Amino acid sequence: MKRSMKRPVRRPVKRLPPALLHWLAPALLFFLIYLGWQWIALNFKSILPPFGALGAEFLSRPGFYFDNLLATLQAALTGFALGSGLALVLAVLAVYFTVLRAAIVPVALLLNVTPIVAISPALIVAFGFNAVPHIIVAAIAAFFPMLINAMSGLRKVDRETLDVFNAMSASPMEIFLRLRLPGALPEIFAGAKLAITAAMVGAIVSEFMGTSRGIGATIVMATTFLNLAQMWVAIFVSALTSLALIGLVVLVERAVIRW
Amino acid sequence: MPSDRIEIRDLSKTFDRDGQSVLALTGVNTSFARGEFVTLFGPSGCGKSTLLRLLAGLERQSTGEIRLFGQTPAEASRLKNIAWVPQSPGLLPWASLRANVRLSERLNRRADRAPDRRRTPEDADEVLRDLGLEDFAEARPAQLSGGMRQRAAIARAFVQGAELMLMDEPFSALDELTRDAVRLRLLQVWEKHRKTVIFVTHSAAEAVMLSDRVVVMTPRPGRVFREVPIDLPRPRTPDVLDSPAFDAKLREVKHVLRAGWEDAP
What we know:
The structure holds two protein chains of two kinds. By secondary structure, chain A is mainly α. Chain A is built from ten helices and no strands.
């Protein structure tokens, strides 16, 4: 049989617009995860609770979850403010005093590789059954990501712009406020996004011990009573709250960084 | 003592590179008049940018003396009397074009109150207009083309109103067509203000087109090999730039550059 020389007629393939696809793809994945979750929940009751039970559990006592979330948020946000605030101050000083930089980096690294769960009991022994140990753990967790990001952002400065500033004898303070700091803002915000999530994780892990309030305590309590629904509601509440906190940082970032 | 010239005497600069000292400039002697447009011209590594940085006070010479209209570079810089145009535009990405060209108003404000102040800042909007940037005054640098950003860097220097403008290969990153257009703009604005400009370039055509005098330097260690006066009429209209006299000057400058190569040790 002779091969036809005619080119095959290509029919235009109908494609979904890419914007819709980008929205649809994650939605589909979430739906698949939901199906898998429900399948496990219905076949192995001791592993996961069905979603309906989660909704019912949350709606039966929303005040309980809000109270505990509030305790966690207080510890996490205070810790975030203290930890990342101190990191920012040290990062600024490290730009000007290289000795200080050499001194803090190893200490910060050591602090970063120390498991938070391991510090938490020691802090409870030291400070007692109050919010202080949880705030400290959140602060330690927030410290490192902010320190590293802020230091890298503040250290690099456009040499040629610096020449322009120096040629007209701009003061060190002017160089910092008008060149170095604004240039470091994108990295400082990247650090803030990491730090605020880390502070949430730190606060929750810390609440596993030494307190009856907070999302961490709620999870531990649920373990004791084998209350799967309560445990998973607490997990979802903490995840959604972290997401909302990142969203808040992004909103501030968009308002500040407009270039 | 106030003087109307820029004097450079026995200037040398040695850098320390990995424990080895490298002689970048040696025995540089020259002098420029107020209001002159001078280019420092020479091959890469001849120390022309180093010489410019010494004049700006961005680096200290190893030996010798610089007097900018009677002042040391440090004194002139303290009075905001030196405007620097870097190789990349060096604009602040977060500031509008207008805020960028008015940068000098926000820095080193002590200089504006100094009794021996000599600088007269120019109107930013007028300079933006002269450089064809008036419609983009509120735009941020990222929204502009490379040529426009470089024009903005030049506008910033003119708005500062410094007696001395130092330009370090400001057009080297631009494409040929854009470079030509920006050079013409620079010439037009300069004709209006007539500040002293010292301009570093490795393009012979650029040197001849812009300046009153081309200072040809030898390869490392950099020395002033010869100075070629460019007595072409001003304003340098396209007619002047197409004239046989321009071509002859261009050949002369290239010839001197080659002679400088052969003269180098």
